[in-house]
Write a structure and sequence with these properties.
With 343 residues, this protein is of the alpha/beta class. It has helices spanning 11-22, 34-43, 45-50, 94-114, 160-180, 217-223, 243-256, 274-284, 314-320, 327-340; strands at 2-6, 26-31, 53-57, 78-81, 120-124, 142-144, 189-193, 197-199, 239-242, 264-265, 270-271, 310-312. Bound molecules: NADPH dihydro-nicotinamide-adenine-dinucleotide phosphate (NDP). NADPH dihydro-nicotinamide-adenine-dinucleotide phosphate is lined by residues 7, 9-13, 31-32, 36, 60-62, 82-86, 99, 124, 126, 168, 195, 197-198, 213, 215. Keywords: Oxidoreductase. This is NAD-dependent epimerase/dehydratase domain-containing protein.
């Protein structure tokens, strides 16, 4: 199958690329710079030579015509759109919102106009588009594939987390609205993959400690000794999933599970806390003991079961049939991969 994967240099996308190539699919992937394109080609010389891997440069996905050319690649059947900013280094929230929202609508519009062979588009959304901050502390809340974050543009000024959640929510809403609008005459179906916090090993040929992705940064911080005095708060969105399972979910949703069409997939392995993360790292990396929190170090606990929201992702689990990796395996593999690049 011929697949277009956007943002191929990203933490999650790099795993999707690995899995697609391992399964023998042809991949066209987009990155922002020639430097990253070269790294991808060098890591996959055989596929780059045979044409199974093509890397295209799309410098700015916030441009409405960003994807107009690359979607014209002959014979594309599936598009996996993962590129979207997940960081808090911005001065204006538009730096998150525009690539997220315009990036999503522009790729859908380009496909609808110029890529008649595409049968399915998978958009990487987020648990950020499912949760509702006002209900997060209540055991009466159950978040599922049917839940929507009520955040609006008016909320983005509140804080960077809210701005990021808005970028994902509004981008996903725009995607569903686009495919449902008869004026767009779409001939493909849409699937969204909605992961919470994603941990897991970084793909080595792209990895650097400076460039560690946002969700893994807390593992890097723990290894760097920043949690020695106190484990930081876990945050509100206390669900997680391993990156290899998120990548597998994209591959299944895009290429293998026909019934996924039209669905939101809530991919999560369950609860986690920074306290548990600290304890896994401490148990597995005794050689780093003097930098790590001890058993007595306080912080990072999550509310007890009676003070947290519930979640229900049975529909997704049944549809995809993925056995989620354990938190321990995920964190140990993350830490090992970060130590290889100097953590
Ligand atoms: P990364 O930061 O590693 O990847 C983000 C990707 O988007 C990179 O390929 C990046 O390119 C690209 N990108 C970001 N901004 C722009 C822009 N303005 N123009 C062009 N490309 C851009 O993060 P993840 O792999 O974690 O994120 C991938 C997707 O998964 C995103 O949609 C994110 O919202 C979603 N997600 C991530 C979660 C997590 O915990 N990691 C949880 C839920 C959803 P470059 O490599 O050049 O920076």
């Amino acid at each position: 199958t011929k697949v277009l994967l956007t943002g191929g240099s990203g933490f999650i996308a790099a795993h999707i690329l690995e899995q697609l190539l391992a399964k023998g699919h042809s991949v066209v992937t987009t990155v922002r710079s020639e430097d990253k394109a070269a790294k991808l080609r060098e890591a996959h010389p055989a596929e780059a030579a045979s044409g199974a891997l093509t890397v295209a440069i799309v410098p700015d996905i916030a441009q409405p015509d960003a994807f107009d050319e690359v979607v014209k690649t002959p014979g594309l059947e599936v598009v996996l759109h993962t590129a979207s900013p997940f960081h808090f280094r911005y001065t204006d929230p538009k730096e998150l919102l525009d690539p997220a929202i315009i990036g999503t609508t522009s790729i859908l519009r380009a496909i609808a106009r110029s890529a008649p062979t595409v049968r399915r588009v998978v958009v990487t959304s987020s648990f950020a588009a499912i949760l509702n901050e006002a209900l997060i502390d209540s055991p009466a809340t159950t978040f599922s594939e049917a839940s929507w974050n009520p955040v609006t543009l008016a909320d983005v000024a509140r804080n960077p987390q809210v701005a990021y959640r808005a970028s994902k929510t509004l981008a996903e809403q725009a995607a569903w609205a686009f495919v449902r609008d008869p004026a767009n005459a779409v001939r493909f179906d849409l699937v969204t993959v909605n992961p919470p916090m994603v941990f897991g090993p970084v793909v080595h040929y792209l990895a650097s400690l400076d460039g560690v992705n946002t969700s893994n940064a807390r593992v890097a911080d723990c290894l760097a000794g920043k949690w020695r005095a106190e484990v930081p708060p876990t945050g509100a969105a206390i669900l997680w999933v391993d990156v290899r399972d998120v990548a597998a979910a994209h591959v299944k949703a895009g290429l293998e599970v026909a019934e996924a069409g039209g669905k939101r997939l809530f991919v999560t392995a369950g609860w986690f806390s920074n306290a548990e993360m600290a304890s896994v790292v401490r148990r597995h990396f005794p050689e780093d003991a003097e930098r790590l929190p001890t058993k007595e170090t306080k912080g990072g606990e999550i509310p007890g079961e009676e003070e947290r929201f519930r979640f229900d992702n049975e529909a997704t689990r049944k549809l995809l049939g993925i056995e989620w990796r354990s938190f321990e395996e995920s964190i140990v593999d993350t830490a090992r991969s970060l130590k290889k690049v100097g953590a």
